[in-house]
Automatic annotation (TrEMBL):
One of its GO terms (molecular function) is catalytic activity. Residues 15-135 form the Nucleoside phosphorylase domain. It comes from Tolypocladium ophioglossoides (strain CBS 100239). PANTHER family: AAA+ ATPASE DOMAIN-CONTAINING PROTEIN-RELATED (PTHR46082:SF6), ATP/GTP-BINDING PROTEIN-RELATED (PTHR46082). It comes from the Eukaryota. GO terms for biological process: nucleoside metabolic process. It holds the Pfam family PNP_UDP_1. Coiled coil: none annotated. This is Nucleoside phosphorylase domain-containing protein.
Amino acid sequence: MASATRPAGRVDFHIAIICALPHEADAVTLLFDQFWDEGGDLYGHADGDTNTYTTGRIGNYDVVLVVLPNMGTSAAAVAAANFRSSYSGLKLTFLVGVCGGVPKIGECDAFLGDVVVSKSIIQYDYGRQYPGGFKVKKTADGRANKDIRSLLASFEMELNRERLQTKAREHLSLVQSAALRKRRQADYRYPGLAEDRLFQPNYAHKHELSCKLCAAESDTFCELAYNASCTDIGCDEAKLVAREHHLEDGQFTPEIFIGCVGSGNTVMKSGEDRDRIAAANGCIAFEMEGAGAWEEVPCIVVKGICDYADSHKNKKWQNFAAATAASVAKAMLERYTLEDGLRAATRNAAHDNDRGTERE
Ligand SMILES: [Zn+2]
Ligand SMILES: [Zn+2]
């Protein structure tokens, strides 16, 4: 790709990517074609903004990337507010990373490594507790702005989703080869179908025998069980849900699911609650930042499924799911068009910059 000219100032950045965790951002950085901050931060930030930014170019767009300082919806809201004060020209923001997936979306099975894209976001733990139960308060801004809505609508056409998937698969192999070339510690290879295990929703991850806490009738399980793998504590394979996943030539292509993403301040770790809340709110995945970031910056959540939001421990998919999400986000960005005025302004800024004119 031809080397582009760096933007003159912060206001010339129209695309942002927010990640909750460094390992999610690591995958994204492997898809940058160029960085603007190799020699240090050229753009600075607004007063009071404590975020640290990475700037560069992905495809035809200058992109600013930020990693949130803490998890949860309120930390995301604060960071996103700062983000907006420093980068006032943002038009499209992606929240990229990993999430807990709902294993059955409509008629389709969702597998680990598949990617969820938010058409709307619901904060499922925010609402009113009535005597008869909890009622989620639907926020009016749960829907995306017009720009984002039309981009998402285009992906609801099967043809466009196929195109996204094809490009995402290309980007995924780029992430994998770049990680090897740069000797990154993270392993972005597909962990394998044998590692993709879905247990029945009511089968909890706990010691079967000789543990008082785990044997108690309630849903409690001991700290030891919490930190151990399913193999270590002997989760019963007879309780696995049998599903068929077709890999093309043994290669994984992420399926892309567009729908409502459930956002909350606690990590969803229960198969039964997952299914109950998903059914009640129509959500297809669970994560912790979308609702907070959304309050400040209209954004699209693009997250790879790294577990099934149940109690069974599985850390093996974190990097792979971060990589599939980053790959889908890049493929989406490639199909985004800035409005004409901004495209012209961006071109002029690049031109001014060529001539060494400082605009800020
Ligand atoms: Zn136990
Ligand atoms: Zn388990």
